[in-house]
Amino acid sequence: MTRVLIAIALAFIVATAIAVVYARHEHRVLFVELSRLERDRDELNIEFGRLQLEQATVAESTRIDQIARERLGMKTPESGDVVVVRP
Question: Coiled coil where (predicted)?
Fold first, then answer.
């Protein structure tokens, strides 16, 4: 009877040890994935900042063009109105 209990206890101990090893392996795999995703997030945040800056720059030049046309009556010259000066 005691041999059966010892065998059952030993089986549970081995199963638990295998489960611990598997859990630690999964933890490592998931940690590596988390690190990669955080790096990707940081790169995307940097790109988003660049795009916001570019959008602000484009919006500013568009705003200047709009003001020049409305307030100052400026317009893009026709191709016949452009004179090229050569040295």
Answer: 27-54
| Residue 68 near residue 74, CB atoms below 8 Å | yes
Model pTM score: 0.58
Task: Please report, for the chain, the start and end positions of each structural domain, with discontinuous segments joined by +.
Answer: 2-70
Contact between 24 and 16 (Cβ < 8 Å) = no
**Rounded Cα–Cα distance for residues 75 and 1 (Å):** 102
Which amino acid would we find at residue 81? D
**Amino acid identity for residue 14 in this structure:** V
Residue-wise pLDDT tens digits, 4-37: 999 999 999 999 999 999 999 999 999 999 999 9
The helix, strand and coil proportions of the chain, stated in percent and rounded to the nearest 5, come to: 85, 0, 15
